[in-house]
Amino acid sequence: MLPIIILKPKKEESLMRLHPWIFSGAIRNLPHGLKEGDLVAVQANDGTPLGTGYYQIGSIAVRMLSFEAQETIDNHFWEKRLAEALDLRFQLGLLRKDNNIVRLVHGEGDRLPGLVIDLFDGVAVVQAHTVTMHLMRTRILKALKVVMADRLKAVYYKSEGTLPFKAYTGAKDGFIYPDAAMTDAPQVAVENGLRFHIDYLEGQKTGFFVDQRENRNLLKQYVHNKRILNMFCYTGGFSVYALSGGAKLVHSVDSSARAIELTNENIQLNFPNTDRHEAFEADAFRFLQGGRTKDYDIVVLDPPAFAKHRDALRQALRGYTRLNEAALRHMPTGSLLFTFSCSQAVSREQFRLAVFTAAARTGRHVRILHQLTQPADHPISIYHPEGEYLKGLVLHVE
Predict the structure, then answer these.
(1) Are 397 and 336 within 8 A, CB to CB?
(2) What sign does the dihedral 317-350-209-226 (CA atoms) show?
(3) Exposed, middle or buried by CB within 10 Å (0-12, 13-18, 19+), for 266?
């Protein structure tokens, strides 16, 4: 019997619309002895069953796993959810010989809030963003082995940087299948025919930014015989695609020495001994000072999240404005700017306004050619618009 959380009057309305979050202010009572990570049954104020979720400390107090009153969160549940997620990726045509990099589970978008799983040539990198998903890691592993069968080569658990403060107990980052001491898992995977080193151990997120795949492919269509500047390059994804599209020159910039090292490794992996690429370890704002963008036909701005929570929103918007202004001011006539925000706290409208402000300050005539978002393997539940975190614009500068 699960602990029961009862909501205040009329606070069930968002759940009736299948929104998966319950905020702390909507709860009438918390059962005695309830611990963070516990599964809970949720009821309306009149006792009507609303489904099953899990409890966590914070403003989002419950995340719903099921809106069915009688669904049990057992091994069958995990297998069913993962099988649905895998089937969708096959429907999308993303698991194929020339592309074995894909997001298998995207939190609320796959009805598994707090869980992210990326696949890299059969290696599943699992990230728990909540205590419950951390506690359920053994069941998740068991379900992965059933659902993926012989497609699963290894599982790497990577949650130390994503779990709530002081919540990380019982496991450390590392391989949990087939052997904790495993050292021979594939570390090169393929995206749209291009090869990338995957740094499971020390890389950001799951080791690779899967969410920019379609946007990198779009860049490739514009780069032939062009000069490209890739700011915040991380592992050089946009740079590799630019070279594959026939760019005349590609410069990659990042403040991290490790990012520059990874970028150069990926360039070498795909284009050995090329003289069309150079990487620079530098702060982005300092690099852009002095009108550096005048030397490039296409500029890519893909910074890390400027706002990881709403308290930082105002400062983040100023940062996006300042960054885009620095790029736009000196770009050549007819050039293109690919600019992005991955801050979930920043809405599409707010990001567009920040870029508009940047363009207005420069006095340049700027047109929007494309409005970009995350790819289909990062699905957004129509009932959970908060799941749309990646925003992008392709701008034509005159």
Answers:
(1) yes
(2) negative
(3) buried
CB 192 within 8 Å of CB 240:
no
Query: Strand 115-120 and strand 60-66: pairing?
Result: unpaired
Based on DSSP, count helices (H) and strands (E) in the chain, helices before strands: 10, 19
In angstroms, the CA 321 to CA 67 distance is 41
Among candidates 220, 228, 268, 226, which has minimal Cα distance to 245?
A: 220
d(CA 392, CA 218): 12
Across the chain, what does the average pLDDT equal?
A: 95
CA distance 289 to 368: 24
What pLDDT shows up at residue 181? 84
Low-confidence ranges of the chain (pLDDT < 70): 165-171, 307-310
Under 8 Å between Cβ of 228 and 297 = yes
Residues 6+ apart with CB under 8 A from 347: 391
What are the tokens at 193?
A: 């025919």
- For residue 80, the 8-state DSSP code is H
Q: What's the CA gap between 251 and 267, in Å, rounded?
A: 11
Sheet harboring 115-120: ordered strands across?
Answer: 101-106, 115-120, 123-128, 154-157, 174-177
- The packing angle between helices 313-328 and 348-362, to 10°, is 40
**Predicted confidence (pLDDT) per residue in 81-120, tens digit:** 999 999 999 999 999 999 999 999 999 999 999 999 999 9
Look-up of token digits 């053994």: 138
Show the tokens assigned to 277: 């690429």
Q: Give the integer Cα–Cα distance in Å for 64 and 391.
A: 26
134 phi and psi angles, rounded to 5 deg:
-65, -45
